[in-house]
Amino acid sequence: SQGPHLLAPTGSDLDCNGRLGAVLAGYHYDLNLLTVHGRSRFPGLFVWLRDGRRVAVRIPAGCLLMQAGKQLEWLTGGHIMAGMHEVVVTEATLAAVEAARAAGRSTWRISSTVFTHCASDVTLQPLGPYAAREGAREAYPPVKAGEQVQRELEAICLRKATASCNASAAAAPAAASKLESSSGLGASNVTSSINSGNNSSSATGVAIGSR
């Protein structure tokens, strides 16, 4: 109820950005509750599993992709993690671009994404049995959802904090250490992501049939 949900279609012109290895969306996690994606016409989305594997995402036709965000991680005390993902131009992307050109279709990669949030005045904290997880209450102390969002935006310098962005970024190594220990990812990569202003999370994505 009254959550600050955001529909954010984004696009990349693959005529200009269709170079093998080009990064269309940098390595990041989503700060919200759940992110809902429609199926893209061009592949390139990757997620990281808890064992550190980088996996290409394939969404069946007629399905949506659901990605867990930081708020869901908070509510489950880390049982569901807000994982890392990125969008990169691959050989499969380039093959899809050539097929689109041959068919006279657009070569824009469009992602229509709904970012759903908890209402800003709701308290985020581990719920039900998740509160009993060892260390959950300490790792995820009570915080208003609106404040959690503002902290995330300040950490990546998308919102001006009381202190400077440099001071906000000083907390990045600690955040990186936490992400590294929970996801098996290298701290240098996580810190780079936080400091560079990439703010989006997906634990493992799950394709669900649309009705």
From TrEMBL:
<protein>
    <recommendedName>
        <fullName>Isopenicillin N synthase-like Fe(2+) 2OG dioxygenase domain-containing protein</fullName>
    </recommendedName>
</protein>
<feature type="region of interest" description="Disordered">
    <location>
        <begin position="182"/>
        <end position="211"/>
    </location>
</feature>
<feature type="domain" description="Isopenicillin N synthase-like Fe(2+) 2OG dioxygenase">
    <location>
        <begin position="26"/>
        <end position="116"/>
    </location>
</feature>
<dbReference type="InterPro" id="IPR044861">
    <property type="entry name" value="IPNS-like_FE2OG_OXY"/>
</dbReference>
<dbReference type="Pfam" id="PF03171">
    <property type="entry name" value="2OG-FeII_Oxy"/>
</dbReference>
<dbReference type="InterPro" id="IPR027443">
    <property type="entry name" value="IPNS-like_sf"/>
</dbReference>
